[in-house]
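Recall that a protein's primary structure is simply its ordered list of amino acids. Everything else, from secondary elements to tertiary packing, is in principle encoded there. The following example makes that idea concrete.
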Amino acid sequence: MKLTKVLLTSVPFSALNNNRFSFCGMNSKGILFLLLCCIPLLSSCGKEKEEVPPPLKTIEIPETITGLYVGELPCDDCKKKQVKVELDSLGQASIEETFIQDSVLKVSSKASYVDSGEVIVLTFNDSPKKWTFKKQNKLSLVYLDLSGKPYYMDSGIPYQILKILNKPKQ
C-alpha cells in the first residue's frame, strides 16, 4: 500500500488524466491497472501463517450430584435473589443467598439435602424453609414450586441453578 502511494504521489495527477505520462510504452491507464493488480500481491507478503489453536480439552461431567451450583431464584420482597449452593457427598449443603434491592445483603445458611433420584429437597437447618429442585440434566437443577411444577421467570425460562464444573479458587 505504501509503495502504491509513493508511485502515485510522485506522478502529477494532471499527467495521468491527460495520458501524457508513459512508461515502457504503456499509457497512464495501463500503469494504473498494473499497480492496482499488484496491490493484493504486495499486501500479502508480510502476513504470517495463522496458527491453528490446539483442540480443547474434554471436560468430564461428574455423575454425582455433589458440587457447586449457582443461579437465580424467585424473590417476593427483593428485585433479585442470586444463590450459591454447594452440595457435599454427606448430604449437607452450604448456601449463600444474595438479596439485591436498594442495597445488597448476603446471607449464609447450612442445610441438609435428600436426593431421591429425580428430585432434590434442601431443608434449611435454622428455619422451616425448604427448596425443591428437579434434575434437568447432569448440569442443572430446576426450582420447583409447592405443587412440584417448575417456577418460571417473566421471560418464560424456569428458575434454575447451574453446576460449576471448575470451582473458582478462593
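The helical segments are 2-9, 13-17, 28-43. Confidence is low (pLDDT under 50) at residues 1-11.
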